[in-house]
Amino acid sequence: MLDVDQAPESPGLYAWYVNFSAGPHDWKMQPSPDGDQAIEGFLRLLRKYAGYYEPLPIALRGSGSYGATWEGELELDTPMREPGAATSGVDVEEDKRLEILMGSLDNEERRRVMATIMEMASPVFSSPLYIGVATNLRDRLRTHRRNFTKTYEWLREHPEDTETVRAKAKSFGARAAARNIAMANLEAWIIDIGETGSDDLTTKHLRDTAESAEWLLHRMYAPILGRQ
After folding, report:
1. Given pLDDT bands bounded at 50, 70 and 90, which one contains residue 95?
2. Where are the beta strands (DSSP E) in 4-68?
């Protein structure tokens, strides 16, 4: 996101990803009377990253007998949620997997390897946060950066608005800022379809084709910060 000015001024598709970021201070041993504190610290880092991909609650509403109305929300229950977050119960199998995960963080070298895997996973293994289409890729990505910066600055002064913005923001930049993603960790990959053009294809033709591709990609990959 820091370098969107380098994007081409041509029509195309783009996808935003968030990179995992960790350094030696995250995986180096931190001795304490209770053991190596770096284990819990690294787990918090993984939980924070997993939280970027956590879907919003699903609102449900139904009708019962005698005009009764049932309504509420469903939230994803996952062991990667921060401790203290509401959960529906204990899944023994998931708890075992969490124990295995913590066991794989029990020394410096294993934490370093985990950090390397997570850093390499995006974008090769990871789902996109957002997929979009643009007539001018540079202008569109600049708009995302402006929205992110404006929202980030607002939430720094009004943290009580975070959940509202997270659920109802109209733009990708605002939704990403509300999830407290660092701008430096946001990366856009683009498909410049201006390079595939010919004399028989106008900019409008290219844009229309890109919009059709965007529609299909949304339904295939369901980007978590897309318009749903």
Report:
1. confident
2. 12-18, 58-63
